[in-house]
Amino acid sequence: MNELKSEYMVLCEVCGTKMDNNFTQWRQQHPGATFDNYLQMVAIAENQIPPEPPKRKMDVFKSKSLKKNTLIVLITVLSASVGGWLGKEAVGAVKNSKKTTTQILDRQWMKKGYGEKNSLTLESPWELNPTSKISFPEEVKQIIEKIETFESPENKNEFLKVAVNILTYKPQAGVLNMQGAADGTMNGVKNQPGITNFLYDEQPYSVNSIPGFIQKGSYSANGFNYEFTSIGLIRELVCWQIMIILKKDDKTAQKVAQRIVKSISI
Is 151 left (phi over 0), alpha (psi -120 to 50) or beta? Predict the structure, then answer.
């Protein structure tokens, strides 16, 4: 509320913003009207001003809103840490490899469960190995209950990198923010040193009725062109992430990636 001291008041005395219902603007829509008419039609008497909401309620609302926004930021930061690790590891593994041979499609693939209680299963030409290489900022530890990470073995005769991450959040994380996880993963990859021409498309995705997203894209790094598929799935306090990175236009590696994606089950 502003006290109307004269017909020339245009800006709010509290925030400095132009008031949409100032007298000058109002008179353009009411030709011939006077300032007294404006006071009668627009202004209210001091004793008609509604009481302010109790301070305590406002503080509680702001506190909840701030907490929610902070958790979204933390989820985004955590996913960026995961995405950054995947991007770095994949570039290192893929750039040192030769072109994938078709033998990888003919060998005996294994279907295996990963994580606590084997919560995620997929089929692959090799067993994914547990790893503890990933690191993340101290501030995000307050919302993490457990993080389980698995990666494909290094093989110079294969042209792709596969990683699975299973993140279990603490109850205070509330409802996990899907878009925060999606954006964080992509930010982590594209912000790696030397990565350029980063492009991707994102679509809704689900596995066994568990909602999520799928991101497909490409980028350049170290003189090579890469393509990737990233999948995120969220149920209650658990987030499953699967990422496959390969050298662009490697037809055999593309077939491997498609087969792995189709085999995912939770």
Answer: beta
